[in-house]
Design a protein that fits this description.
4 strands; about 325 residues; mainly alpha
Length: about 325
């Protein structure tokens, strides 16, 4: 296991290095002055000159990338001050280090991601298991139909509709907002309740279908039939054998989804006006703040890669047939 994790971590570091290099060089491949894009829309000639000097535009692109890469570990000096490590660059549009902007927004995205994950895992896996256990019966048909409808929904439509009905008309849920968990836990919960429910609709549908199909497949395996032939109860066979084997594909999808959401639930944050990483990336695109966009892409890629490592390690624990040498 230790050697496996070391190999996966080294591979992840190489992937992140390639992603950062491709993104950085694409930044300079655009048919326009990179400094003008980094400076943003409302850029004065004086500010443009400062940005060009801080980015080192006169230096070769590879040397600029090297300075950016080294700055992640050692920090960098800019005209507006020193950027402490880990320094992902400086946003000349917002006049702040990119890493600090990401840190300020990350608690919102983290709360939104893990809260929604708890909801769609509980309902998705639960409904999928019920559908598999009652295969061909009304419960199975209802769960399958509900998952199909949920998968057809779009967050920007369901979010606006849910806000109008539950917040504006019925007034049974507070208007979405973010309050730090350490400041007021109840306000944190109530403020994110509606985004959790809306975000979990589509994911619940996906996990219901995935869990059901995996459970049905596992229930037809030879080792499950052997367990039944030995006289084990249906509950034991279902929960101890079939369920454990069926969780492999579900864990794989969960690792990817969690990494993507931590990289920024763009549509959900924009729909409910939550100031997270997703909303920050949208503003970076609108303001042409490419250094900020580069930092967001790197953070999102890091989250996806790290959770894929966790998923690979969890496989051996969940499914005894998959052992890591």
């Amino acid at each position: 296991m230790y050697r496996f994790l070391v190999r996966r971590i080294l591979g992840a570091a190489m992937i992140l290095l390639i992603i950062s290099a491709l993104t950085f060089f694409l930044f300079f491949a655009i048919p326009r002055d990179p400094a003008a894009f980094a400076c943003g829309k409302l850029c004065t000639p004086e500010t443009l000159e400062i940005v060009r000097r801080n980015l080192g535009i006169d230096e070769p692109v590879f040397l600029q990338y090297w300075h950016w890469l080294v700055g992640i570990f050692t920090g960098r000096d800019f005209t507006y001050g020193h950027c402490d490590a880990p320094c992902l660059g400086y946003s000349f549009v917002n006049q702040e280090p990119i890493f600090q902007a990401l840190v300020d927004r990350f608690p919102t995205t983290l709360s939104l991601t893990f809260g929604a994950a708890v909801v769609f895992l509980l309902f998705g896996i639960g409904m999928g298991m019920i559908a598999a256990a009652r295969q061909g019966r009304p419960a199975d048909k209802i769960a399958s139909s509900a998952s199909l409808i949920g998968a057809s929904m779009q967050i920007y439509f369901v979010g606006v509709l849910a806000t109008w009905v539950l917040v504006d008309q019925l007034q049974i849920i507070e208007r979405p907002s973010y309050t730090p968990l350490t400041e007021n836990p109840l306000q944190w919960f109530y403020g994110l309740l509606l985004p959790w429910l809306v975000l979990s609709i589509i994911f619940t549908a996906n996990y219901t279908r995935m869990t059901r199909s995996s459970m049905v497949e596992q229930l037809g395996e030879d080792y499950v039939r052997t367990a039944r032939a030995k006289g084990m109860s249906a509950r034991t066979v279902f929960l101890r054998f079939a369920w454990r084997g069926a969780m492999g594909p579900v864990i794989t999808i969960f690792g990817v989804d969690l990494g993507v959401l931590l990289g920024g639930a763009i549509i959900t944050e924009q729909t409910f006006s939550l100031h997270g990483i997703g909303e920050l990336s949208i503003k970076a695109v609108i303001n042409q703040d490419l250094p900020m966009l580069l930092g967001v892409i790197l953070v999102a890629a890091t989250a996806i890669v790290l959770f894929n490592i966790v998923v690979d390690a969890a496989y051996a624990f969940i499914d005894p047939r998959v052992r890591l040498s």
